[in-house]
Write a structure and sequence with these properties.
alpha+beta, Aminopeptidase, 13 strands, 12 helices, 2 domains, 13-stranded mixed beta sheet
């Protein structure tokens, strides 16, 4: 089989994406290390909430009429004084903690077909940005070799770090590996809260309106972060809409993993997560800052992790960020890299100008040489 056996086609609208939803779901289900960030559900919510329909540029890879690969991209333009700079990036860029190309079989052939396609269609792009792809990607080395054979310049640099807990053995065994100071602190603060009223760990299962609970979650997040130097992202209506759509969609598909800590009738902390492919993702935690001295978020996290052991979850993923508190619970992590592909030398210089202003002098020198 050669690259010509794989047919490459492009989808440019949400209607076209909706038409392949079932094929997308079947394709993703054939991938053992699939993630929620690769799902049709996740992409659909990002497109709807952040109005990215006009940017859709999704590549399909088919073999004998069957979908075997999918690369969900968007195309955006940066209007510079000297030119319009066209960038291809993941459709969920800056909305997912990590991403990857969705390919079930013949991965190297699909990637080679992709590079062949972009080499023959350079008019529609200047730069391709793959943000936070798995560093352990087996095809990465051959992908780089093919880039070189196509005479496409590229660079890679460090992406996010995601601490993870591998759920093995019993929770008691895991707990014995944690610092005693951490466990004793949680017990002490939990005991103090129980002295004030009835303390409950709630795992959402439809007991109240999800819309009401989501609104409370958003308000608590704003209250918690507005007392810091980094105000809550929920001050933007788009973000509120996105979370409302996403939480409802996850719940409707039995993928929502929403926990909250209640003291009598007051909610002290939330853990918004998802459960997909036997992995729990720790999307967005928050807590009531009026109760910060009781560390309600820490108490809730302890019980969320405990529930993962009881539910036979395989991985608890803290997602992007190397915050110190995450390493109280684990020493393991997944690392990701960024890859940028350039159409030509000018494309690379403009990239450096946009993302690394210190290279502006290099650009000026290049212009004098034209």
């Amino acid at each position: 089989m050669n690259d010509n056996d794989i047919q490459v086609s492009i989808l440019r609208s949400l209607a076209e994406l909706k038409a392949i939803k079932k094929e997308w779901d079947v394709l993703l289900n054939d991938i053992s290390d699939r993630t929620i960030f690769q799902s049709y559900l996740f992409h659909h919510n990002v497109i709807e909430a952040f109005e990215r329909e006009k940017e859709i540029y999704v590549l399909l890879f088919k073999l004998k009429g069957k979908l075997i690969g999918l690369l969900p991209l968007r195309i955006i333009s940066r209007n510079l004084k000297i030119m319009k700079y066209k960038i291809l990036e993941f459709l969920t860029h800056n909305r997912s903690d990590y991403q990857d190309i969705i390919i079930s079989i013949n991965k190297e052939k699909c990637l080679s077909a992709f590079l062949k396609y972009i080499s023959e269609n350079k008019a529609f792009w200047d730069l391709i940005f793959f943000k936070n792809i798995p560093i352990q990607n087996e095809e990465l080395a051959s992908f780089k070799e093919t880039l070189q054979s196509k005479k496409l310049d590229y660079l890679t640099f460090e992406g996010v770090v995601c601490p993870i807990i591998e759920i093995k053995g019993s929770f008691d065994d895991y707990k014995r590996g944690l610092k005693k100071k951490l466990i004793n602190d949680i017990r002490r603060r939990e005991r103090r809260l129980k002295e004030k009223g009835e303390l409950k760990i709630m795992h959402y299962s439809g007991e109240i309106s999800l819309e009401i609970l989501t609104n409370f979650f958003i308000q608590q997040h704003m209250k918690r972060w507005d007392r810091t130097n980094t105000p809550s992202k929920f001050h933007k209506i788009q973000h509120q809409r996105y979370y409302k759509l996403l939480l409802q969609d996850l719940y409707d598909n039995n993928l929502l993993d929403l926990f909250y800590l209640k003291l009598d009738n007051k909610i002290l902390a939330f853990h918004f997560g998802s459960v997909f492919n036997n992995k729990v993702l720790f999307h967005t935690p928050t807590f009531d800052p009026d109760y910060s001295k009781y560390a309600p978020s820490k108490i809730l996290l302890f019980h969320v992790i405990k529930s993962c052991f009881l539910r036979n979850i395989a991985i608890f993923d803290f997602l992007a960020g190397s915050e110190r508190y995450k390493y109280d619970w684990t020493k393991k992590e997944n690392r990701y890299i960024n890859m940028v592909i350039f159409k030509n030398k000018l494309s690379k210089i403009i990239y450096q100008m946009i993302y690394h202003p210190e290279f502006y002098t290099l650009f000026r020198s290049y212009k004098r040489g034209l």
